[in-house]
Amino acid sequence: MSAEPLTDKPIAPVEPVEPWRRQVEAAATRRSCGGWRRAPGLRVAGWWALAAAAATAYVLWGLDLRAIDQTTLEFILPRRLTTLATMTVVGVGVALATVLFHTVTANRILTPSIMGFDALYLLVQTGTVVLLGVTGSLTLDPVSSFAWQATAMTLLAVALYRWLLVGLGRSLHMVVLVGVVIGGFLRALSTLMQRAMDPTEFIVLQDRFFADFHGADLRLVGVTAVIVALAAAWTIWRAGRLDVLALGRDIAVSLGLDHRRGQLAVLALVALLVAAATALVGPTSFFGLLVAHLAYQTVGTHRHAHVVPAACGAAVVTLVGGQLVLEKALGLEGSLSLVVELLGGVTFLVLLLRRARA
């Protein structure tokens, strides 16, 4: 008699909760790196101590605290604090989305942007300039623009996940492949529209192709902060289940976890986080990959209770510390996103070459 095929329907665990939790912890420990096994919490605290130091230095750099004038209180400090809040919210959101995406795909060289979020954002921006012109696109209400851009990106991703994973019963690899194809189509459509543009319109549009952490609307930063905070709280609350989910489909199902349902929930959360961050500042293709691997290499454990806070702390250190060095120490006016994307792209190539050798 042939055995029944393995399905995603959960089965009753054969052991109590505590034994399978110890199995998960033992598996995560075996996959960690020798001397880095001890005290991952201290390394997480170290990342956030560096983040606090970078944030303090960024806000207070060049200010004479003994003689703060009206200009400092009304212009300099509010601008710096808004930029700091934007970098913190976007950094934490992108880092969280990348770690969760790695959890469900079991592939650490992918980023959520591979699903076409950046391409959809560019298409929306291009279409807005084409339909409304430069003046019309600049006079749009930022709250309304943020809301419908984030909603469109989230709904597109969730519909894609549900259609392929549930409706057609395809694997996650097929979902990623379809996302790459859709992203390529959207980029091609954006390029076609850009070729028909007036050169002046294209120059204005080109500034939106890169993430900009300066001048974000404080209301939008607050909305995104609420989304990121709720997502982070859910992730920490579900950290044990995410550890099981990361072990793979067969092990997760055998331990009583509804793998397909958990996969869809995580992917929907990733879509919401990436859509909100992209609608707020613009595309950040490889930034999440960079900070996620900084966390993987320094924490020395695969448990989400430690990896997620470490990745978020590394994201804040990278953005705020990078902006501090670029703007204050070196006196440069260039875009930090270009430098971060360059480092993230190099990280991607290194990981790709390392996997090819294995």
UniProtKB/TrEMBL annotation:
Keyword Membrane on entry: yes
Record carries keyword Metal-binding: no
Keywords: Cell membrane, Membrane, Transmembrane, Transmembrane helix, Transport
Coiled coil, from the record: none
InterPro entries: ABC_BtuC-like, ABC_transptr_permease_BtuC
Subcellular compartments: Cell membrane
Recorded topology in the membrane: Multi-pass membrane protein
Transmembrane spans: 45-63, 84-102, 114-134, 146-165, 171-189, 218-237, 264-295, 307-326, 332-353
A Pfam family the protein falls into: FecCD
Protein family (similarity comment): Belongs to the binding-protein-dependent transport system permease family. FecCD subfamily.
Protein name: Iron chelate uptake ABC transporter family permease subunit
Native organism: Arsenicicoccus bolidensis
Upper lineage: Bacteria, Bacillati, Actinomycetota, Actinomycetes, Micrococcales
